[in-house]
Amino acid sequence: MTANLNDPMDPVEDRNAMLEKALIEEYLKTNGHTQESLKKLPPEQVKKIMQDASQYASLKLEEVEARANFVKGLQEGSASLEK
Predict the structure, then answer these.
(1) How far is CA 3 from CA 14, 27, 52, in A?
(2) Under 8 Å CB-to-CB from 27, ≥6 apart: which residues?
(3) pTM, 2 dp
């Protein structure tokens, strides 16, 4: 039996990978692009757009992680007050 590398439920895949892909798609859409429209652009322009999209996704992922850590800290703080 072989693993399907394109299976979105593959446990090997990074848990943030799907979110990162969605954020990149969001960036592209917001800036008037799609994966298909990028194929019609010069390689240098595509590289720049994808670098910007990757940076956007990275910053958003950091924001999500920071918010999750903040909420976790709040929950741990309130749990210690309940004791």
Answers:
(1) 15, 31, 32
(2) 52, 53, 56, 57
(3) 0.70
Q: How far is CA 83 from CA 38, 71, 72, 79, 80, in A?
A: 56, 19, 17, 7, 6
- pLDDT by position in tens, the chain (length 83): 444 555 555 555 677 889 999 999 999 999 999 999 999 999 999 999 999 999 999 999 999 999 999 998 888 877 666 65
Per-domain boundaries in the chain: 17-82
CA atoms of 41 and 36, how far apart (whole Å): 10
Whole-number Å distance between alpha carbons of 61 and 67: 10
